[in-house]
């Protein structure tokens, strides 16, 4: 395999998905940490925060290789409402993936029917959340430069919490 200076489009988009997922997860862990009283669980959360932070920093290093130039803008960091939008979008997407896998693993017709019904509801909810975010300008899926720029802001915000 040749050593390329840029990432392929499809891997750039996978990178976007991972950075957004990890950023939201890191923020959730950091917000939850002060409420955890069990020391073992607190230690697990601290480990999760540390490892997720390391992962994010490592992934962010690849953004210099995405195939579109990234503009540096001084917009305000995302507010909590945008965080909750992204969290709901990630949750619904994970649900769709989980249900799709469960459907392929299910042999009982009645259970499969319920899972397919719930999968379809999850797909519709995911689409509704996405369209809401897109309309508000919080998920610029057709502007990769802005999309990747938003990823970097979200990741930096998660790391700086």
UniProtKB/TrEMBL annotation:
Keywords associated with the record: Capsid protein, Sporulation, Virion
Main site of residence?
other
Q: Where found?
A: Spore coat
Highest taxon in the source lineage: Bacteria
> Does Lipid biosynthesis count among this protein's keywords?
no
One Pfam family named in its UniProt record: Coat_F
| One GO BP | sporulation resulting in formation of a cellular spore
> What family does this belong to?
Belongs to the CotF family.
The protein, known as: Spore coat protein F
């Amino acid at each position: 395999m040749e050593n390329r200076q840029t990432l392929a489009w499809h891997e750039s988009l996978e990178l976007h998905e991972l950075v957004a997922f990890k950023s939201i997860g890191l923020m959730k862990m950091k917000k939850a940490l002060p409420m955890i009283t069990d020391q073992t669980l607190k230690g697990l959360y601290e480990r999760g925060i540390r490892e997720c932070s390391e992962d994010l920093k490592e992934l962010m290093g690849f953004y210099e290789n995405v195939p579109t130039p990234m503009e540096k803008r001084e917009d305000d960091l995302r507010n909590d409402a945008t965080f909750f939008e992204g969290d709901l979008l990630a949750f619904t997407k994970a649900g769709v993936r989980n249900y799709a896998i469960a459907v392929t693993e299910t042999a009982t017709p009645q259970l499969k029917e319920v899972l397919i019904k719930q999968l379809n509801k999850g797909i519709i909810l995911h689409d509704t959340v996405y369209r809401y975010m897109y309309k508000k300008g919080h998920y610029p899926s057709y502007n990769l430069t802005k999309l990747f720029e938003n990823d970097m802001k979200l990741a930096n915000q998660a790391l700086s919490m």
